[in-house]
Amino acid sequence: MRPLVIVGPSGVGKGTLIAMLQREFPDKFGFSVSHTTRGPRPGEVNGVHYNFVDKQAMERDIANGKFLEHAHVHQNIYGTSFAAVKSVTKAGKICLLDIDVQGAELVKKSGMDAAYVFIAPPSMEELERRLRGRGTEAEDAVLKRLENARTEMKSKDVAGFYDAVIVNDDVDKAYMALKEVIERHVDSRPALSTDQLLTRYGPVAFGIACAIAIAARVFMNGGKL
Ligand code: ADP
Ligand code: 5GP
């Protein structure tokens, strides 16, 4: 099955929805445990919520090619290691990635066949309430996250990037919507390898390239082939 990439501003409820999925379907979904240079919040467990590492170790592992993607988010480095995704898919589970917009763009560029969903807040005021209500960030970190949220929100309108945008107003409704997205874009779509992608879309790409070449030749020859 294709991995599911879940994107959205900090405090919107991504972690809450992911926890609901894992609670209801513990054998079906596995979380890709990212690396981060930020410190753990109370209750966060190393190796479960994140792999908490220092900047030097993270930069070394990035240089050694261990990461599928990484990004500087809210003044820290976050990244998805190849090993994190592999450990979920090896267990036969659907891999859930909770990553930021930059990370999602990089995963898409990597060619990994995945589904993408953006979780949006009902309003920026409500996002701020949730971020502050969670009580995990100091004031300057809250302000930084809110500032970044405004940029991240623009990403949901990029045509064709996301398979779905879900507004997390009522959490149960958002969860139902997420399960529908999974049915449509994950359950019914086995992951394609690079070879399979080439077999499926290669002939179409070749056809388009030929048509462009012929049109260019006709144009250059003043209307003759
Ligand atoms: P994220 O993982 O996107 O940073 P969280 O899942 O940690 O966000 O949620 C941030 C806060 O908002 C948490 O306190 C959570 O309980 C709360 N929350 C999540 N969804 C909703 C919702 N639909 N309505 C109200 N509060 C919510
Ligand atoms: P938090 O510090 O609140 O756990 O996460 C902050 C932001 O970092 C969130 O938007 C989250 O999705 C993002 N994030 C978490 N892990 C990764 C990762 O591995 N890669 C990227 N690019 N972003 C991540």
Overall structural class, as computed from helix and strand content, comes to: alpha/beta
CATH architecture of the domain at 4-32 and 93-211: 3-Layer(aba) Sandwich
Helix residue percentage = 40-55%
Total number of helical segments?
8
Highest CATH level, the class of the domain at 4-32 and 93-211: Alpha Beta
How far apart lie the N and C ends? 46 Å
Strand content: 15-25%
CATH superfamily membership of the domain at 4-32 and 93-211: P-loop containing nucleotide triphosphate hydrolases
Low-confidence stretches: none
Mean pLDDT: 93
Oligomerization:
single chain
> What's the total number of strands?
9
**Bound chemical compounds:** adenosine-5'-diphosphate, guanosine-5'-monophosphate
Characterize the main sheet: 5 strands, parallel
Radius of gyration: 20 Å
What is the spatial order of strands in the main beta sheet? Answer: 2-7-1-8-9
The CATH topology annotation of the domain at 4-32 and 93-211 reads as Rossmann fold
What's the helix-strand series? EHEEEHEEHEHEHHEHH
Outline: globular
EC number: 2.7.4.8
Keywords: ATP-binding, Kinase, Membrane, Nucleotide-binding, Transferase, Transmembrane, Transmembrane helix
Catalytic activity: GMP + ATP = GDP + ADP
Pfam families: Guanylate_kin (PF00625)
Task: Describe the structure in brief.
This protein is α/β, with parallel strands linked by helices and 225 residues long.
